[in-house]
Amino acid sequence: MNDDLSNKIMERIETDKTVPVPRWHFFILRFFFWLFAALSVIVGSFAFGVIFFLITDYRRHGLFAVPHSINELLSMIPYIWIAVLILFVIIAEESIKHTKNGYKYRLRTIVFASVMLSIVLGTIFNFIGVGRITHELFERVPIYNSVTYDSRNAWDRPNIGRLAGVVTSIHDNNDFSIMDFSGRVWQVSFITSTNQNYFVPEASSTVRMMGIFGSSSNAFVARSVHEWER
Q1: 102, 158, 163, 201: which sits with the fewest CB atoms below 10 Å from its CB?
Q2: Domain ranges in the chain?
């Protein structure tokens, strides 16, 4: 019976002209799966780096100290980068599963390791400026700006008392002009220079302010002025 089976197998091999797959094929395949896993973790790290940058950017520019509506709070969540992080964690997990010993690892172990690596590398990337650079590069893409909310968006809202921009001219200690991040020019008056929240602006400096609309459409009365930290 064994001989018959062996003969049938040999006949099938000869009929189909089956040839053994070289070992180097499997080596290359495993290499590419590990490469995909590594690249996925790196991309996930870039995504977390941008998430980290946006959160620290909100804090650095005082957005945790001002009131927000529910809609604004929801818009501040970096959905696109969270989606990228999740997507590439999944790709890394699937790639590792197809490596030589990938089947031995439990799903949650692979996912946990991928997420932790992305967080650790992303944190490092943020501290060396990669998060900021990545965000600023993508800002050149119009659709990215429509789905990403950063501190400049939050401070370009004079209708709710928040305004920021570059000082274009100084009139006196309490009056100056700025150009906001949208390119609009404003005449700013500060109520009192003795206020503790007053940063003395200089020409070409960037400031952020809390206040109210003035008497004209391009006038703004500031009750606090802070330097815009870069």
Answers
A1: 102
A2: 23-151, 158-227
Point out which residues pair with 226 in neighbouring strands: 208
The residues with which 155 forms a beta bridge, in sequence order, are none
DSSP calls for 135-175:
HHHHTTSHHHHHH---HHHHH-BGGGTEEEEEEEEEEETTE
Nearest CA to 39 among 131, 113, 114? 114
Distance CA 207, CA 149 (A): 19
Q: Give domain 158-227's CATH architecture.
A: Beta Barrel (2.40)
Count of Cβ atoms closer than 10 Å to residue 57 Cβ = 19
Rounded Cα–Cα distance for residues 199 and 66 (Å): 18
pLDDT tens digits, one per residue of 149-165: 888 888 999 988 999 99
pTM: 0.75
Q: What is the pLDDT of residue 155?
A: 92
Q: What is the dihedral of CA 157, 161, 163, 167, to 10 degrees?
A: 150
Determine if residue 40 is left, alpha or beta; phi over 0 gives left, psi from -120 to 50 gives alpha, anything else beta. alpha
